[in-house]
Amino acid sequence: MNKVSAQQKTNASMPLLSGFLAAIGSGLCCAGPFVLLSLGLGGAWVSNLTLLEPYRPLFIVAVIIGFSLAGYRIYRPISHCKKGTACAVPANRFRQQIIFWFAALIAAIFVTSIYWLPLVL
Question: Can you give the three-state secondary structure of 95-121, one letter per residue?
Fold first, then answer.
């Protein structure tokens, strides 16, 4: 059985994590106040989240770069993986692909929230 070190797992998941965090950042200006108000949390400070609106394009670029790099690392051929790394184990690759697509769906919801939230409200 192949053992994968914690450092190798961390290096493989960093682009996915960075893309997901950037997606959350891009949705904070729009989805953030909506979610907080839906949960019953309110106040004048919630409107301060809209201050992130000018940085939204930067967050979207970070999402695209993060998920592109993560997709490349997850879907590259097994022949490019070193023996004993996470990408060389088929079960790990399948699990990473599922997590990748789930995170991509959540990221797409956050990134596009500016377009569909006005329809919900």
Answer: HHHHHHHHHHHHHHHHHCHHHHHHHHC
Our count of domains for the chain comes to: 1
| Alpha-carbon gap, residue 30 to 111, rounded angstroms | 9
- Highest mean pLDDT out of 3-7, 31-35, 101-105, 115-119: 101-105
What range defines the domain where residue 14 resides? Answer: 6-120
CB atoms within 10 A of CB 65: 14
Q: Are 107 and 21 in contact (CB under 8 A)?
A: no
1 belongs to a structural domain: no
Which residue in the block uniquely carries the two structure tokens 């192949």?
Answer: 2
pLDDT, tens digit, 9 for 90 and up, residues 34-91: 667 677 776 666 666 667 778 788 888 888 888 888 888 888 888 888 887 777 888 8
Would 20 be classed as within a structural domain? yes
